[in-house]
UniProtKB/TrEMBL annotation, chain B:
<dbReference type="InterPro" id="IPR004714">
    <property type="entry name" value="Cyt_oxidase_maturation_cbb3"/>
</dbReference>
<dbReference type="Pfam" id="PF03597">
    <property type="entry name" value="FixS"/>
</dbReference>
<keyword id="KW-1133">Transmembrane helix</keyword>
<keyword id="KW-0812">Transmembrane</keyword>
<feature type="transmembrane region" description="Helical">
    <location>
        <begin position="6"/>
        <end position="26"/>
    </location>
</feature>
<keyword id="KW-0472">Membrane</keyword>
<protein>
    <submittedName>
        <fullName>Cbb3-type cytochrome oxidase assembly protein CcoS</fullName>
    </submittedName>
</protein>
Length: 795, 69
């Protein structure tokens, strides 16, 4: 029964510590407690909606003490009046319908909570509560106790509750509304009914259509005019120029037509055109609301720290208010928000955010600590050297790459085609007009506007949004989340790929351990294992797990020297494990590897070398990518893994080690002079390089955990699909080009009618939607067909 | 034949009413989150079921505690 039990609450494998309660198995006491809370408050339906959906709660007691500070609370809540507060909290662990259900029934857990509403795509919850006997802190602790700990970081501070931009939906609604009504009103004209009464009321119908088209041109279509104007001002003929020209020509020509009773005008085509264009825009706008692609250090940093007052009292203050010279406390697993000097405590700092190097660094009192490091165990007292914005890590964000908008610099395929297209259309229109001026001057203006109308590149403008938008969705289904559709276009142009090592190519766990030296006897192994048992150092833990020995000895003596090593003594034998210097060995020149030395009594026996584990299939990824792209490694780590990497990677791969965040950024910048560079990284230390590169992709083991600012987030389990994704991006571009050809065919037919002066409104009304719809169908079918390739890993 | 004015007015009025309903629903934020309501609407029954004490698995536990609340 012990073999395969999974936790009733979270579904994790129950190890040795199975907790039995209420005829159910739980993996830990935390899960059991949540179960108790739910069942005793009438929330047990949680387990029926989705089985084993829970999350193990973390220990968070002291972490949220800063929420006692009313000033900070005031910044976080959206509404705060008459004893009622409304707060919007992000909860990364929201993942299923059970989560929605339990979070929307929070009022059963505390009667002061009056309402709670989950926004699932954004993974946020909006809670209304009475502050009489409740507070934000109690709410956060309550959520934490049931496994839904909200994520509150420095980013949330001062965040203006930015209004949701719904203008596109409004515009789409306006255009659709007008399109439908105008179509209805044009019906009599389509059939050329010669009926007396309809003829009588023709002007009414026409002026109604005119009225409907006004909001379409001046409200729904206004983006195209501004975009075209902006393009022209920077001397760029983008695709919006012919579109704006088309809309304008349609509107003016139609208005003139009905004023002078020349015909019914093209209001149906006009409204339809704008409607379809907006539809394309809407489709392309697929966003992953719960992922943020704009994160910087702020989302990693705590919101407040504990400051020690002169009189020894503790006080919670906002991070920005920390001044040089203040004494602050850093608790276990907290991130150091400022550069500081260690005063008291044993510091084990994990700088993996900053450097990518995952081994904790030991620091002594008087040493300088840099912002961005995470304290691994115990409480530290430090004195602040620099304020938050002046710190070493945060200064990286002062670099101009973070304020540049790359999307606006990139000329899309549509724009580059649009340029030639506009030139061609204007030439044809002018030539045709000149011809008619000579032949029959009365027709000239008619032909000129007809060409502009029919050549309006509606279908061309739709090809890219629908292809890329659909591809974006297909990628998303395979856990590759892109910031926007233009990333696909940029990805297709990549000719060089640079990878970070730690956390990107390797998993976050170091669990490959090799032993070098004289073999240990059984007795020594048992003693070593017993000694390691008492230590909580991560290296001790992983070493303990792999040592094969069941004998547990009683230690007569045990000592742990933080940052150096361990010593254990049983009967006559003693054993020392730790750094080279600690065991009395000359440190070798190559201190590259992470290794732990063992000394039994007086002999140095050997060392355990900890190797990074590379992600599965990484060699195949490199093999496939190497056929088309130049590859490189850019690591913040030491070069201890160079040999292993050389075996794994194609021969010509460049490798750079010991790169600081700025070095990475500069290196990418240098490469960009001749290449389109793809950067694949994972940590904050790659943030500069990710921002500088043409496409920056962050690899993430858990997409709910935050990734640095990037263009796309790739789930680590799909790393092996990366070559496929790049290949598919290139295929998408081909689909767009094919759609351009298709829409060109329609244009040729249309232009024939226009140039010969026989463009009837009904022809335009048929041709325009037809071309648009066939483009939409073609691109959707084509991309779905391509996307199917992702499911068959054989090819 | 001026009935056509009446007909047109009615047809446009109906269209405008629906358009206004659409604008109102966007303004109220119904288009901001199009996923959660689809899940939420399925919960209603379960909540009612519990109140009636028909919850099979933990029925006894809940009725006990709901009185405490």
């Amino acid at each position: 029964m012990m073999a395969n039990t999974t936790c009733y609450h979270c579904g994790d494998e129950c190890g040795n510590g199975t907790v039995h309660y209420d005829e159910k198995d739980f993996c830990c006491n935390g899960c059991k407690t949540v179960y108790e809370i739910f069942t005793s408050n009438g929330l047990s339906a949680y387990y029926e909606i989705e089985a084993k959906a829970g999350t193990t709660p973390n220990e968070i007691t002291k972490k949220y003490d800063f929420l006692d500070n009313q000033e900070i609370v005031g910044q976080l809540v959206e509404f705060n009046e008459e004893g009622v507060q409304v707060v919007n909290l992000g909860i990364p662990t929201i993942h299923c319908s059970s989560c929605i259900w339990v979070l929307e029934n929070l009022n059963r857990l505390h009667k002061s909570i009056t309402a709670s509403q989950v926004d699932f795509p954004k993974k946020t919850i909006r809670v209304t509560y009475r502050t009489a006997d409740f507070s934000l802190k109690t709410l956060v602790l309550l959520l934490g106790s049931i496994g839904y700990e909200p994520y509150i970081s420095l980013e949330e501070y001062n965040k203006k509750s930015h209004r949701v931009d719904r203008s596109l939906i409004y515009k789409l609604g306006v255009a659709g509304f007008a399109f439908g009504n105008v179509m209805l009103l044009s019906f009599p004209e389509y059939f050329e009914v010669e009926e007396f009464w309809l003829d009588q009321y023709k002007p009414v119908f026409r002026w109604l259509m005119f009225a409907f088209s006004l909001p379409v041109v001046f409200y729904a279509g206004q983006d195209y005019f501004t975009a075209a104007y902006k393009g022209l001002r920077t001397k760029l003929l983008n695709i919006d120029v012919p579109i704006a020209l088309g809309i304008l020509a349609l509107f003016i020509r139609s208005t003139v037509d009905i004023i002078f009773d020349l015909g019914s005008g093209f209001f149906d085509s006009l409204t339809g055109l704008v409607f379809f264009l907006l539809l394309g825009k809407f489709f392309q706008q697929k966003t992953y609301a719960y992922l943020s692609f704009e994160r910087d250090y702020k989302s990693y940093f705590p919101m407040a720290v504990t400051r020690l007052m002169q009189d020894g009292k503790e006080e919670n203050v906002q991070v920005y208010k920390v001044d040089v010279g203040d004494r602050i406390l850093i608790r276990s697993h907290e991130i150091i928000p400022v550069d500081c000097v260690l005063i008291k405590g044993a510091a084990q700092i994990d700088y993996s955010f900053v450097t990518g190097e995952s081994d904790a660094v030991h620091k002594q009192s008087g040493d300088k600590l840099f912002a961005g490091g995470r304290q691994m165990a115990g409480i530290l007292e430090v004195e602040v050297l620099k304020s938050v914005s002046q710190s070493y890590l945060t200064q990286l964000w002062g670099n101009s790459v973070f304020s540049k908008d790359r999307a606006s610099q990139f000329q899309t395929l549509t724009d580059s085609i649009g340029k030639r297209f506009t030139a061609a259309v204007l030439t044809i229109a002018l030539l045709a007009t000149v011809f008619w001026l000579v032949y029959r001057p009365g027709m000239a203006l008619n032909v000129f506007t007809s060409v502009l109308i029919i050549a309006c590149p509606c279908a061309i403008a739709l090809a890219a949004p629908f292809t890329l938008g659909n591809m974006l969705r297909i990628f998303g289904k395979h856990k590759f989340y892109l910031k926007n559709a233009s990333v696909i276009e940029r990805l297709a142009k990549i000719d060089m790929a640079i990878f970070d090592k730690t956390g990107t190519l390797t998993t976050n766990k170091k669990d490959t351990i090799l032993y070098e030296g004289v073999e240990l006897t059984q007795e020594e192994t048992a003693l070593l294992k017993t000694t390691l048992r008492a230590s909580n150092h991560p290296l001790s833990r992983s070493l303990y797990d792999i040592l094969k020995s069941n004998a547990i000895m009683t230690l007569d003596e045990f000592q742990e020297h933080t940052g150096k090593g361990l010593e254990g003594r049983a009967k006559e034998h003693s054993i020392k494990v730790g750094s080279a210097i600690y065991v009395g060995k000359e440190p070798s020149i190559h201190v590259a590897d992470t290794s732990v030395y063992v000394r039994a009594d007086e002999d140095i026996k050997g060392r355990f070398v900890f190797k990074n584990t590379y992600r599965e299939g990484i060699d195949r990824v490199f093999e496939t990518l190497g056929q088309h792209l130049e590859l490189g490694i850019l690591s913040g780590d030491n070069d201890g893994e160079r040999h292993q990497l050389q075996e794994l990677l194609p021969q010509k791969t460049q490798m750079l080690f010991n790169q600081k965040p700025e070095d990475k950024l500069e290196y990418i910048k240098g490469l960009q002079e001749g290449h389109n560079v793809l950067m694949v990284g994972d940590g904050l230390n790659d943030a500069g390089a990710l921002a500088q590169s043409n496409v920056g992709i962050a690899i993430s083991e858990n997409i709910n955990v935050f990734s640095p600012a990037c263009d796309g987030i790739l789930d680590a389990s799909r790393m092996s699909l990366l070559p496929k994704f790049i290949h598919l991006s290139q295929k998408s571009i081909r689909v767009i080009k094919m759609s351009f050809l298709l829409s060109l065919c329609y244009n040729v037919v249309g232009v024939y009618f226009a140039v010969t002066g026989q463009l009837q409104p009904v022809i335009a009304a048929i041709l325009m939607p037809l071309s648009s719809i066939s483009i939409v169908v073609f691109t959707t079918v084509a991309t779905n067909f391509l996307g199917n390739g992702l499911k068959n890993p054989k090819s | 034949m001026s009935v056509i004015y009446v007909l047109l007015a009615i047809s446009i009025l109906v269209a405008v009413v629906f358009f206004a309903a659409f604008v109102l629903s966007v303004r109220k934020g119904q288009y901001d989150d199009t996923y959660t309501p689809s899940v939420r609407m399925l919960f209603e029954d379960e909540v009612v079921g519990e109140a009636n004490g028909t919850d099979q698995i933990k029925g006894k536990n809940q009725t006990e505690n709901s009185t405490n609340q």
